[in-house]
Amino acid sequence: MYLLSDILYLLVYYVVRYRRKVTRLNLERSFPEKTAKERLSIERRYYRHMCDLLMEGIFNMIATRSQIRRRYRITNLEVIDKYYDRGQSVILLSQHYNNWEYMVSSLNFQLHHHGVGVGKPLDNKGIGSFISRRRIRYGTEVVDQTDVRQVMEFYDHNHVPTAYMMLADQSPSNTRKSYWATFLHQETPFLYGPEYFARKYNYPVVYYVVTKVRRGRYEVTLSDFCTNPQETKQYDIVKKYIRTLEQLLQQQPEYWLWSHRRWKRQRPDDMPIDN
Questions:
Q1: What's the pTM?
Q2: Per DSSP, which regions of the chain are E strands?
Q3: How far apart are CA 16 and CA 252, in angstroms?
Q4: Angle at CA 69, nearest 5°, toward 63 and 70?
């Protein structure tokens, strides 16, 4: 699989030059303190990792439970299990960092909670439908972000302990229903949904980081991010998330999605920004 990834890297990076201008500009603006040589090294490592992700994504479509478990291990389940034992649902908060598809597919058999992945549908409905069917084959429920309110109401009313996986680094489609902050030296909109639902239902927020132990092997570390959201001030959770993500990217930036147009939207003049 990774031999194919190495070949794909040469094609994508040197021949097709897939979104290299976008990636390079994102890195230049995000890390002006780094030298051009340092940013180029990040860029190349990112493309190698991106090709690994593509091959792993294809493998994930057919992987068995045991194959996923060997490649994707949650190291400290006790962090989230204590909430299940209390009958509490949680917001499982993270970002598109390292491999997230393994988490979607394995959510319902790695955790005791019922697993719900919340996200945006793919533009290509045919491919999106196929990927969704493969994601849910082991019990994870995949929900469009526009439908998550009804799903939460249902499981909350029926007292089903549920883990809602939310990757909050997606670019919001509505710039006015976003939280704006200076992130990596740039004005950046963030989704407010995870904090909104955590505060509405007082669901604890469990944050997780995926570490690439070696090629094809990942470890997931959970941590208590906010245990009682209704006792926090508005925007405290999203602010903490932004700071945490920024620190993560300063340490190992190559595992994030730099080829996406994360900063394609402009802040409306009357929208406040947190500096």
A1: 0.92
A2: 72-74, 90-94, 114-119, 141-144, 162-167, 179-183, 186-190, 205-214, 217-226
A3: 25
A4: 95
